[in-house]
Amino acid sequence: MRKILLVTCSSVLLASLLFPALTQVQAGELSATSTATQKRYLIIHADDAGMSHSVNMATMACLESGIVSSTSIMVPTPWFSEFADYAKKNPQHDYGVHLTLNSEWDHYRWGPVAPREKVASLIDKDGYLWDNVKQVVKHAKADEVAIELRAQIDRAKQFGIPLSHLDTHMGALLSRPDLVQVYVNLALEYALPILFLRDIPPRFIKAYPGLATGTKRIVKTLDENNLPLLDSVLQFYGGENLAQRKENYYQALENMKAGVGQLIIHCGFDDKELRAITKRASRRNGDRLIFTSQETATFLKDQNIQLLNWKQFRAMQTR
Question: Of the candidates 293, 287, 291, which has an alpha carbon nearest to the alpha carbon of residue 242?
């Protein structure tokens, strides 16, 4: 699935990482500027919870493996309530809202959470959210985006989900400067961290035009409100089989720089349900297998990579 902050480097999308981990981290180990530390911290984050039953079951398994430290939930999706129930009963895990403006699958789609008459610029002729980010850029009105995303966050809270952060599905909120501002305003309004980089490389700006201006001001605002910022994000889609995919992940993590980073993965079971939705069911199944394995847990320990979640990162940053 198309996601945020994607950097193509052959099959691996690698950037230096900025995020804490599942092992206990002492308060004060991480300074306000993450690059001041020589340690490597990592949030392993599973996107798209709520998307389907298959994705939900796989995401739960990954969280319970002790390797995946964070997930974010798509509130408009058909299986949201199933995952919301799990989150309410398991508050020890780390849950964000995967702020959603797109419904990208051919025959498996969803509409807005807010009343359609209040967010008419966000939906297509069939009443679904736009298929792709280009359509969001062309049609979406920023005030209606704010209405819809508040409705998504409020619904997550109404279902009892203990929220730790916000992020953006397919990078849609990074596609225009006014949508970036909506994203930042939501962080301030709900006092929740957002997935945002402290230093944004030119290649990211090319991919996400909304980041072309105003980012220094945004970083300053988030800092002033004690909302932590990432150094970078790691994500890739390459690897035609499980062995290649695992090797790509391991090589990327071996080369990970000091600081705090987030690795974004997509979990699922390669079953009939997920195969009916996407041609990438096997890749999602691969991520599940890799990030529930003892081999990966041992690899991370041997690499001295300390796992962290958003709640821990924020607590350390505030102190």
Answer: 287
Rounded Cα distance, 269 and 283, in Å: 9
pLDDT in tens, 49-103: 999 999 999 999 999 999 999 999 999 999 999 999 999 999 999 999 999 999 9
**Cα dihedral 19, 58, 279, 133 sign:** negative
Positions of the chain with pLDDT under 50 = 1-36
Residue 118 CA neighbour count, 13 Å, CB half: 12
**Residue 10 confidence (pLDDT):** 31
Burial 82-106 (b: 16+ CB within 10 A, else e): bbbebbeeeeebbbbbbbbbbbbee
Residue-level pLDDT at 90: 98
Torsion of CA 10, 13, 16, 22, to 10 degrees: -130
User: Any idea which residue has 């006092």 for tokens?
Assistant: 191
d(CA 231, CA 59): 25
pLDDT reported for residue 140: 98
* Burial call 34-61: b when 16+ CB within 10 Å, e when fewer: beeeebbbbbbbbbbbbbbbbbbbbbbb
Structure pTM?
0.89
pLDDT for res 319: 66
Q: Are 17 and 37 in contact (CB under 8 A)?
A: no
Q: Work out the angle at residue 275's Cα, subtended by the Cα atoms of residues 270 and 280, and round it to the nearest 5 degrees.
A: 75
DSSP E strands in the chain: the ranges are 40-49, 70-73, 95-99, 163-168, 232-234, 259-266, 305-307
Residues β-bridged to residue 21: 308
- Do 99 and 152 form a contact (C-beta atoms < 8 A)? yes
Q: Across-strand partners of 307?
A: 42
